[in-house]
Amino acid sequence: VQLQAFGGGLVQAGGSLRLSCAASGRSISMNAMGWFRQAPGKEREFVAGISGSGGSTLYADSVKGRFTISRDNAKNTVYLQINNLKPEDTAVYYCAVSPLRFPAPRAADYVNWGQGTLVTVSS
Predict the structure, then answer these.
(1) Are the CB atoms for 114 and 94 separated by under 8 Å?
(2) Are β-strands 45-50 and 57-59 bridged in parallel, bridged antiparallel, or unpaired?
(3) According to the model, what pLDDT value does residue 99 have?
(4) Which residue among 36, 92, 109, 122 sits deepest, i.e. has the most Cβ atoms within 10 Å of its Cβ?
(5) Residue 90 gets which letter from DSSP?
């Protein structure tokens, strides 16, 4: 499966963005999906994950209440709604597919990664 993330951009603090991750090659409806991010000079970190059905979600504590992950299996696409953006949210955001049915916070639990989309938040 190939993943393409898009929707990043330059926004002011307090603004919102919706990132999309489109999958192609096969259906991802049975797979958990995750969003990770990597800020300059930092390690990649888990942001949010969602089960194949969409009924179960998992968030990093740092983004709870501001980020919402969702999916549309008919469109083979996963979304990340980001509200009240902060400068510390600046990073490249990656989506990834897991062979698991339910989301997990470890990068090792994901096997295919998109190319990333850059989110830059100005103060």
Answers:
(1) yes
(2) antiparallel
(3) 96
(4) 36
(5) -
